[in-house]
Amino acid sequence: MLLGKRLGELARHSAVYGFGSLVSRFIAVLLLPVYTRFLSPSDYGLIETLIALSAVLTVLLAAGVKSAFFRFYFDEPEGPGRLRIIRTSFWFTMTMGTAGLAAGLLLAGPISTLLFGSGEHATLVRAAFVGLWAHVNYEQMTSLFRVEQRSAAYLVATLINLTLTVAATLLLVVVWEQGPVGVIVGNFIGTLTVYAGLLAYRREQLGLELDGALLREMNRFGMPLVPSGLFLWALNFSDRFFLVKLSGPREVGLYSIGVRVASAIILLLAAFRTAWPAFAYSIEDDDEAARTYGFVLTYVVLITSWMALALGLLAPWLVQLLTTEDFYSAERVVAPLAFAAAAFGGYIVVVIGIGRARRTRSNWVITGAAAALNVVLNIALIPEFGMMGAAVATIGAYGTLFLGMAWKAQRVFPVPYQWRRVATAFGVAVALTALGRVLDLPLAASIALIAAYPLLLLPLGFYLPEERRRLRALAPLPR
């Protein structure tokens, strides 16, 4: 009963966080027709390349303190100890973010030349660095809602941010025709505005205090995660850099549309990832935590595999619905990218055991191996296969990341993961996707195959007796 209550609590917080992510991704999808009519594939490629750069700089500027914040917060009782952790994390993040902004503004020309072969996009680079500063600091502020498990307050901040962002982006891109700069600037206006509001709201907690001893402790925990975070960035974004150099901005633009469609799974994982660290670390008993983690992995893989199946089969119609003819070929990469996202979901679950055991120092070895594989596959496959080569490289690397981190996590914090069920859920979804694509099924047949997925798991013995009883309460199932 306690496990059910725990999982219900996680589901509730994930649902609230997920609503904000759902609105965000829904709006992003709705904006695709706008972007694809007012921006060329090359424009879109410029934006995506700068987003990738911002992602790697976020890892460097945060220096692992954001991850340490979640772990250290729950080690302190309510009172001065937690307040010291909040203030130290806040001022460290502010200092690092401001240093990054200053460097970006000064070096915008050389950065533009390095990325795009000329300095003509320096203004776009400067805008991206302002957005980076806003994002780094905003994330630290909203982390307070997460450790307090105030998901509703987090949602309110997210929705206000989204409303302002969409309004600003539409004005800049559609009305004032500012092109890629309009997209970048529009995306940080809402973040900056809400961040200013959160500063006022949290003013009593944000006194001028930076505990050097505490910061060193947090860095000892978090710094080993920095190379790991960089390697994760390589997994997430390096394919854009390889594509822009080996195939050109147009191929990046097409690939990014495929990423956007496949990111429906990232929507779910963003909600889960937001709720998961605070929830996982808040379970004090190790035995209860291990049992809970085991069930969470099974259900995350089940849900993300089903979503990957749906996206892989429906990709041709989704891309045609959301874009113009120039972008239709992007549908080819959706299926492999969706299953890569499912593997990443498994990684999010298993890596928490390493954080719980505070044995993060060698995480970079596994993430580094996965990133190296990704680089090798990108170099080998992109010249001949373009964006499809990048998609294959992504799924291979994420599979390696999940399996490698699961192996390490079991060594430092053993968890009774249900591996047969995990493999069954993932394998059946992959097989059905391949079948549907090979047969080139029409829309109705594809939808039917997607709907059949949970039923096909029945004869394979996926469901536990208690799960079968619960499912029968919702709908009749064969005995």
Radius of gyration from the CA trace?
A: 22 Å
Could you say which overall geometry the principal axes of the C-alpha atoms support?
globular
Counting H and I runs of at least 4 residues, what is the number of helices? Answer: 19
Given as residue ranges, the uncertain stretches (5+ residues, pLDDT < 50) are none
Strand content: under 5%
* Portion of residues within helices: over 70%
Write down the domain tally: 2
Protein model, in words:
- The chain is mostly helical and 479 residues long.
- It folds into two domains: 290 residues, no CATH class; 159 residues, no CATH class.
- Helix content is 83%, strand content 0%.
- It contains 19 helices and no strands.
- The two termini are 25 Å apart.
Short description:
83% of the residues lie in helices and 0% in strands. The chain has 479 residues and is mainly alpha-helical. α10 (225-246) packs antiparallel against α16.
